[in-house]
């Protein structure tokens, strides 16, 4: 990643991508197996649910997110969408999952602070919101995100806590760093 590049690319976790890609296949497979043993409503509902889950996941779950001076570009498998900064009111943390909430309670009880444990969410006007990442970004990525948001003319308020300095970047599990 070069320092002169004005854009920041954030990636979701591989666990999230696999869940979005494998869950619909599993539902469709189980539903098809049930339909092969005879037509019943549960099997039919599983096939329909699997197809609907696949459509929603491929259309809305981000493969990567690019933050630039123009706005936030959400790139999913079936769609590429640019959100201008005027549509984004704030960038906040998502709510951590159950295991991470327990870990946060243990950290609070032991007076150790390991930083935030959840991803980023762009909050729009009204009830609109968009998931940016499903896991914590690195401190360097967070600083670049804050700089990009602050430089935007109608930039959002960044209300997310800064991650710990030793947090790995979101592209760590990729084969190569983003260009």
Q: Give the overall form.
A: elongated
Low-confidence stretches: none
Radius of gyration: 19 Å
Number of helices: 4
Number of strands: 8
Number of domains: 1
Calculate the terminal CA-CA distance, rounded to whole Å: 6 Å
Q: In percent terms, what proportion of residues is strand? A: 15-25%
Topology as a string of helices (H) and strands (E): EHHEEEEHEEHE
Overall pLDDT metric: 84
Percent helix, as a range, is 25-40%
By secondary-structure content and strand pairing, the structural class works out as alpha+beta
Condensed summary:
This protein has helices at 14-36, 41-60, 98-109, 139-151; strands at 8-10, 64-68, 71-75, 80-84, 88-93, 120-124, 129-131, 157-158.
SSE topology sketch:
Layout: E1 8-10, H1 14-36, H2 41-60, E2 64-68, E3 71-75, E4 80-84, E5 88-93, H3 98-109, E6 120-124, E7 129-131, H4 139-151, E8 157-158
Parallel strand pairs: 5-8
Antiparallel strand pairs: 1-2, 2-3, 3-4, 5-6, 6-7
Helix pairs in contact: 1-2
Give structural notes.
With 179 residues, this protein is of the alpha+beta class. The longest helix has 23 residues, at 14-36. The chain has a 4-stranded antiparallel sheet with strand order 1-2-3-4, with helices on one face. The chain has a 4-stranded mixed sheet with strand order 7-6-5-8, with helices on one face. It has helices spanning 14-36, 41-60, 98-109, 139-151, and strands at residues 8-10, 64-68, 71-75, 80-84, 88-93, 120-124, 129-131, 157-158. Helix content is 38%, strand content 19%. It is elongated.
């Amino acid at each position: 990643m070069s320092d002169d590049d004005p854009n920041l690319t954030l990636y979701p976790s591989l666990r999230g991508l696999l869940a979005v890609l494998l869950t619909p296949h599993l539902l469709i497979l189980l539903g098809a197996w049930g339909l092969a043993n005879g037509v019943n409503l549960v099997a039919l509902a599983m096939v329909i649910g699997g197809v609907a889950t696949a459509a929603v996941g491929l259309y809305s779950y981000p493969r990567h997110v690019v933050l630039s001076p123009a706005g936030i570009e959400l790139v999913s498998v079936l769609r590429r969408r640019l959100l201008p900064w005027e549509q984004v009111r704030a960038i906040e943390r998502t709510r951590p999952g159950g295991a991470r909430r327990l870990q946060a309670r243990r950290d609070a009880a032991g007076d150790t602070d390991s930083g935030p444990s959840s991803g980023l969410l762009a909050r729009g006007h009204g009830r609109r919101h968009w998931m940016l990442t499903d896991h914590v970004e690195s401190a360097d990525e967070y600083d670049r995100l804050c700089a990009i948001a602050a430089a935007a003319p109608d930039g959002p308020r960044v209300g997310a806590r800064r991650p710990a300095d030793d947090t790995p970047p979101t592209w760590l599990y990729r084969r190569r760093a983003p260009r």
